[in-house]
Amino acid sequence: MRAVSCYVHVPFCRHICYYCGFCRQKYNETLEEAWLNQIQKEIDDKHLTQLETLYFGGGTPNVLSASGLKRLCEMFRPYLDSVYEWTIECNPELVTYDQVKMFKQMGINRISLGVQTLNNSLLKSIGRHHTSDDVFKAIELCFEQDIRNVSVDLMFALPNQTIDDIKKDLQQIVQLNVPHLSIYSLQIEENSIFQKQNIQPIDEDLEADMYEMIVQFCKQNGFTHYEISSFAKNKFFSKHNMKYWSDQDFIGIGCGACGKEKGTLYENTKNLNVYLQKGPCPTLIQEDIKEQSFDSIMMSLRTIFGLDIQQWENKYQMNFRKQYQKVLQQYIPDHLQIINGHLIPTEKGFEILNTILVDFLEIH
Ligand code: SF4
Hints:
Blueprint: E1 5-10, E2 12-13, E3 25-26, H1 29-46, E4 53-58, H2 66-76, E5 85-90, H3 97-106, E6 110-116, H4 120-125, H5 132-144, E7 150-156, H6 163-176, E8 180-185, H7 193-196, H8 204-220, E9 224-227, E10 230-232, H9 239-245, E11 251-253, E12 258-261, E13 264-267, H10 272-278, E14 283-285, H11 289-300, E15 307-308, H12 309-316, H13 320-323, H14 325-331, E16 336-339, E17 342-345, H15 347-351, H16 353-362
Parallel strand pairs: 1-4, 1-11, 2-3, 4-5, 5-6, 6-7, 7-8
Antiparallel strand pairs: 8-10, 9-10, 12-13, 13-14, 15-17, 16-17
Bound molecules: iron/sulfur cluster (SF4).
């Protein structure tokens, strides 16, 4: 079956954040033109069919010029007859009235904002150039254009950040009425400015306390903790990400994009010059059936929808309950439960998910 989800990686940013280890580089117009030409070529070569979800991520997709963004959207128009979720990641400082209006006209129906924190001095300290006012304005512009499905990315475990700082962020976010929140703890990534500055991660216990506080706060304020790092109100789940978490294929387009087709993972070149000259040059990540079946368990247990045991058994031709009898006995009912044929972590299970997965891996 053809993949019905597509991720497009836009590798440009206005500034480079201190914590960033993604595939990105500073935006310039000449590169934009060449990059768009190569994206068109990749779309044609892939023989895309109709999509259900489309995701423009980055980098910073909304750093592209108005005409560049429009061209990128137009390229996908032939494949969007049955699309039900089309997301674009945006940097708040670059969001304008005209931009959001164009998103609406094109059919983009979900905006993911890289907020990180609403504390202006913390934002500065991690190399972000927007302020909390930019965030408020960006969300208002989305709502004005009737794009209600707005997601906020929030970071925690930042240097010098306190639990109180995060609580203040969350209190303000709740006031903003956004239906989706994704949280990320700071990782010191290779080749990031923070790594070069030898910035150290915060204390592990403090990080765990921060996570626990965020989960409690979000639940008390009407969010469903539906994935280990994601919260949604009124079922505004990320449908695109649900494809990753439920072991489905997705097409990756652009320099630095990952994809999975016919069950095989791949990663396109991260080198923009190589991409512009030779195309995506994907590296195939060959996994044997054992690795694939474990990845499927690992990704599915991230969500409250869990692992569809029958589907897993059909796909990987193994008897799940027999194979993992020991782990299931150990963790059911406190940390795992089976509901309607799905293996689902409890809230306590989410807290020790890594330990549970190690136990799965050990007898895999
Ligand atoms: S964190 Fe995001 S916005 Fe910042 S440099 Fe990296 S890709 Fe660009």
